[in-house]
Amino acid sequence: MSAGERAKATAEQIVGKTVRKAAHAVHKEALAAKGAALEARGKMRGTKERTRGSFKR
Predict the structure, then answer these.
(1) Contact predicate 42/11, CB 8 Å
(2) In this structure, how many other beta carbons lie within 10 angstroms of the beta carbon of residue 14?
(3) Going by C-beta distance under 8 Å and a sequence separation of 6 or more, which residues neighbour residue 11?
């Protein structure tokens, strides 16, 4: 997994979690769902890169 892709995945997870928690705090459920989707996309990106790295060996 390249360092750049790992950073993108981690950044998406952090931003998604922050948006989700902030939206829950102000009772904006639509925005919370967008934050959860961003967080999930970051997790999937990380999983994809880890899987791709294991097949390279």
Answers:
(1) yes
(2) 13
(3) 42
What is the DSSP-derived secondary structure letter of residue 57? -
H/E run at residue 47? helix 29-56
Please give the C-alpha separations between residue 42 and each of 3, 17, 34, in angstroms, as whole numbers: 14, 10, 12
Per-residue confidence band for 57, with pLDDT thresholds at 50, 70 and 90: low
Report the predicted TM-score, pTM, of the whole model to 2 decimal places.
0.81
CB of 49 closer than 8 Å to CB of 9: yes
**pLDDT tens profile 23-54:** 999 999 999 999 999 999 999 999 988 888 77
Contact (CB, 8 A) for 38 and 5: no
Query: Residue 47: phi, psi to the nearest 5?
Result: -65, -40
